[in-house]
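Inverse folding, one chain.
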């Protein structure tokens, strides 16, 4: 029997509700498969922890996480704590030291779910966005001087390194190559950003030479929003900078029906450090405590975690269960215009997993 050590960090708001639901699904999955078990440790880090202790994560937190096979994360952010503190104090404080440079965001229209785009069906929209997750606009470089004075100045410096761009391009070309259509769109803004983005384009061209079977094209980020909306069929795999992909992945999730469905993997592909899996939605304080958060994004993130752990059959089983459940509109949460609760969806997915004979 294999044992996987999972660090659960539910964080804030609905993060707590959806991670609890996701752990139930993972438990059902381990019970059904019987050849692996999960040892889960919960870490109560986040905004409540910050209010009590002045930090989002205790000193030595990263050291403790190192021993785990994967991290299952909910959301971070609270109305009464500045967002840049929560983000840098927890989520980026894990992504950066663990060098989780490849952020992978698949988007599909799941059974039973409708795209807000007229006439767009599941066959038309099946994308994976690869987000550069270690540098770019989120490098954290910059500062503020002359605070409060009329001459106050703030800089927010984007960093693009040859090594950083090269590794994410390689990752994206490889992912595109592994998918049936072998099609990659490199998103850029090199018309206006004439240093970092031009380097980005040059490296894309260099790396492309090593993947002659991958068809690729280049698209300015603004035009990409139009293409995603009007010609979703023309897209398969996408690679973009940290900020560009942040924005495009929200659009992608909305076009696939709801941001409540979309998953993320923050990968350290070399496996020197644990990778982290999370839904892309935030802490959603407007619906916190109501029991109506859509747990599907968190379940789909568990699928990505199982794939990463080397349990493809279990991952496929959870994905099948998710799709059987989304196919039933009576099991849609309010973000999908339904009336189901988090618990109803979770019960249904667990029961489907346990009863799955494939
Ligand atoms: C995401 C989120 C985060 C980001 C927020 C919470 C800072 O929007 O994972 O896409 O911008 O990276
Ligand atoms: Mg985002």
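Residues assigned per position:
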């Amino acid at each position: 029997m294999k044992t996987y050590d999972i660090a659960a960090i539910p964080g804030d708001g609905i993060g707590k509700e959806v991670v609890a639901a996701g752990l139930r699904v993972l438990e059902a999955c381990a019970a059904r498969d019987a050849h692996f078990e999960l040892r889960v440790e919960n870490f109560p880090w986040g905004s409540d922890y910050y209010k009590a202790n002045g930090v989002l994560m205790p000193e030595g937190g990263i050291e403790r996480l190192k021993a785990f096979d994967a991290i299952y994360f909910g959301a971070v952010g609270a109305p009464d704590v500045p967002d840049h503190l929560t983000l840098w104090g927890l989520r980026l404080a894990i992504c950066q030291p663990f060098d989780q440079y490849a952020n992978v965001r698949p988007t599909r229209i799941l059974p039973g779910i409708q795209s807000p785009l007229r006439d767009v069906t599941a066959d038309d929209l099946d994308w994976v966005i690869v987000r550069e997750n270690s540098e770019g606009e989120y490098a954290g470089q910059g500062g503020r001087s002359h605070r409060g004075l009329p001459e106050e100045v703030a800089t927010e410096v984007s960093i693009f390194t040859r090594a950083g761009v090269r590794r994410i391009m390689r990752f994206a070309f490889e992912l595109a190559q592994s998918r049936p259509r072998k099609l990659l769109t490199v998103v850029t803004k090199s018309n206006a950003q004439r240093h970092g983005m031009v380097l980005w384009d040059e490296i894309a061209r260099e790396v492309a030479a090593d993947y002659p079977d991958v068809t690729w094209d280049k698209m300015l980020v603004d035009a990409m929003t139009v293409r995603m909306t009007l010609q979703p069929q023309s897209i398969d795999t996408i690679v973009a900078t940290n900020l560009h992909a942040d924005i495009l992945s929200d659009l992608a999730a909305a076009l696939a029906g709801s941001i409540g469905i979309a998953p993320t993997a923050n990968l350290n592909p070399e496996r020197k450090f644990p990778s982290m899996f999370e839904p892309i939605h935030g802490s959603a304080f407007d619906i916190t405590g109501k029991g109506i958060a859509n747990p599907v994004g968190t379940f789909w993130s568990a699928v990505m975690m199982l794939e990463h752990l080397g349990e493809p059959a279990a991952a496929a089983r959870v994905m099948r269960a998710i799709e059987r459940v989304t196919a039933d509109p009576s099991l849609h949460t309010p973000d999908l215009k339904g009336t189901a609760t988090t618990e109803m969806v979770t019960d249904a997915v667990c029961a489907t997993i346990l009863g799955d004979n494939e």
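The pocket of magnesium ion (ligand 2) is lined by residues 246, 250, 280 (CB under 6 Å). The radius of gyration is 20 Å.
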